[in-house]
Amino acid sequence: MFCPILRLALALAAAAIIGSPVAQAQSFPSKPITLVVPFPPGGPTDAMARTIAHRLKDELGQPVIVENKAGAGGNIGADYVAHAQPDGHTLLFGTSGPLAINTSLYKRTGYNPQKDFAPVIKIGHLPNVIIVNPAIAAKNVAELVALAKAKPGVLAYGSSGNGASSHLAGVMFGNLTGVELLHIPYKGTGPVLNDLLGGQIAIAFTDVLTAQPLVNSGKLRAIGVTTAQRSKALPEVATVAEQGVAGYDVSVFFGIVAPAATPAAVLARLNKAFTNVLASPEVVETLSRQGLESAPDNRSQALAEFMHREIGKWRTVIKVSGVQLD
What we know:
This protein is α/β, with parallel strands linked by helices. About 45% of the residues lie in helices and about 20% in strands. The protein has helices at about 5-20, 20-25, 45-60, 75-80, 95-105, 140-150, 165-175, 190-200, 210-215, 265-280, 280-290, 300-320; strands spanning about 35, 65-70, 90-95, 115-130, 155-160, 180-185, 205, 220-225, 250-260, 295. The longest helix has 22 residues, at about 300-320.
């Protein structure tokens, strides 16, 4: 028979093994994983999430369920994940809004993107592009700036709503070029494009996936890509920075995060699984068709550092814009 002290020692040793990072990683996942998309079904974020989730089950050996929890610019879904059980089974397919912009834009979000999330991996970004109605004389950024300076506060640009990235992209453009544009908020991108095509507004800042068919058909003109590098979807269009506006870099980025207290071993397991999925030729091709520019660095730390920079950048832009939402 074992003495009580030896039994206690063996029990403590077993508990230590079971609770060790290696054991946690080996036992994870123990049930289906929920990938929360904080926007309605059918949009680009939802499509990308479902593309990745479909292949992720092969890497993790468990079903991956995409669950849409929309509302408040992504805050409802983000808050849900931030307060979920930190075991790696509930993840957020986050975007620029909930992971960087909303913390300065909203008075209350219910979560802090840097304190309440553990970064898993940056998926990539969707470049934006400045598009104008062909009736506008400007054919490049310099001409657009000159036209706007000649008519301060007259040239109107539409956005999908106050505080949306398409709104703040215009604010940043004005800050860096010294021009004053008239902002017209709409309820969604569709109405913006309808009025841009109809000539009711002059400019829009939208994603390349939406703009590409309208630009290629000649219905709208692309003035400049808003990211640091040119877009693969519109490679012939120079970036805004290339055209003399240093520091202008605006896109919608996508990243996977987990609740903050998720064990490091589980985060590492998730990072490896997502990395493998994102390297799959089938997934690469599908995401490319969806407009995604893949992230060059798959480390979780790369997402943490990027979020930190984006939060600071948008905090400054939002402060200048004066916009704040409840």
